[in-house]
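Progress report, Aim 2. The chain analyzed during this reporting quarter is listed below.
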Amino acid sequence: MFYTVGEAAKMLGIAPSALRYYDKEGLLPFVERSEGGIRMFKDSDMEWLKLIECLKATGMPIKTIKTFVDWALAGDETIDDRLGLLRQQKQSVLKKIDELKTHLERIDYKIWYYSVAKEEGTCMAADAIPAGDVPENLRKFRNGGGENIANI
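Predicted structure tokens for the chain:
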């Protein structure tokens, strides 16, 4: 079965212009075209597109995704290259996850802070709580984190 750009984009939850951009950047050399030049996406192309979207969502640059696609199309002699690239991207994603966890913890601290402030009717009440009485998992943001300033 074949899908149009619009149908494929809808299935992926992206804009049709994204698929056109990917094609322009050389990420879709495997996509067939009709005699009139219209892109015709097959089910196997959809798997490629899902992988491209996955790599893009992890922060991999389009140029690097193109390299990956080129290596994949080149065959088995590039398995080591592809494996290395994916391992490198995994490390990048794990680092980003750690950063996001820290941001989430800071948000948790601010939720605690403003919950106390709301309950007491003032941020000064939250500021007055001794650091030792702040929930243990949130203390690192109180101690030296500049969080004792009201209304931030």
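Strands lie at 32-33, 39-40. The chain has a mean pLDDT of 92. These observations will guide the mutagenesis work planned for the next reporting period.
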